């Protein structure tokens, strides 16, 4: 504990698996510098009304760079949660029908930090690509 921590007036923020999900989602949608209304709608669906998880994530994002979120999130989640986060983030990134370069960079950082193999990731990507390819209805 730093000498002046008592003067801040609040306890340290503790990351839970749910707030880690919120943190990773917010980091992804904020990575391009613009948070769109549709992205906020998707975030609300992801956290299912858990405002505490979102507030915790926002507090953390105010104190660290987005690039540092991967380390924090990776420490909190188990293997199944990590896979779920990658699927959720990939779907979130594709919500507008395209994968922006900044979003791809964040996704790649999470995949690497989580240690997810390409073989494990491929079926997830295939399903999300199919889900978001509305050209099949044209």
What does this structure look like?
With 138 residues, the chain is mainly alpha-helical. The protein has a single domain, classed as TerB-like (Orthogonal Bundle). The chain is built from seven helices and no strands. The chain has helices at residues 17-30, 37-47, 51-63, 69-76, 79-93, 101-114, 118-132. Helix 1 crosses helix 3, helix 1 packs parallel to helix 5 (79-93) and helix 5 (79-93) runs antiparallel to helix 6 (101-114).
Summarize this entry quickly.
With 138 residues, the protein is mainly α. Helix content is 65%, strand content 0%.
Topology:
Layout: H1 17-30, H2 37-47, H3 51-63, H4 69-76, H5 79-93, H6 101-114, H7 118-132
Assigned CATH superfamily:
TerB-like
The biggest sheet, with number of strands, parallel, antiparallel or mixed sense and barrel status, is: none
For this structure, the CATH topology is TerB-like
Q: Secondary-structure element order, as H and E?
A: HHHHHHH
Q: How would you describe the shape?
A: globular
Q: Any idea what the radius of gyration is?
A: 16 Å
In whole angstroms, the N-to-C terminal distance is 60 Å
CATH-derived architecture: Orthogonal Bundle
The percentage helix is 55-70%
Quote the average pLDDT.
Answer: 88
Q: Helix count?
A: 7
Number of strands: 0
- Low-confidence regions: none
How many domains? The number is 1
Work out the strand percent.
Answer: under 5%
């Amino acid at each position: 504990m730093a000498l002046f921590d008592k003067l801040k007036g609040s306890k340290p923020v503790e990351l839970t698996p749910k707030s880690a999900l919120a943190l990773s989602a917010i980091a992804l949608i904020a990575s391009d510098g613009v948070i769109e209304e549709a992205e906020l709608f998707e975030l609300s669906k992801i956290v299912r009304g858990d405002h505490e998880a979102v507030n915790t994530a926002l507090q953390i994002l105010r104190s660290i760079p987005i690039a540092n979120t991967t380390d924090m999130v990776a420490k909190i989640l188990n293997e199944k949660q990590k896979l779920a986060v990658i699927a959720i983030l990939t779907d979130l990134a594709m919500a507008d029908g395209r994968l922006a370069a900044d979003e791809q960079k964040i996704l790649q950082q999470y995949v690497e930090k989580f240690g997810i193999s390409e073989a494990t990731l491929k079926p997830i990507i295939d399903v999300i690509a199919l889900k978001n390819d509305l050209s099949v209805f044209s």
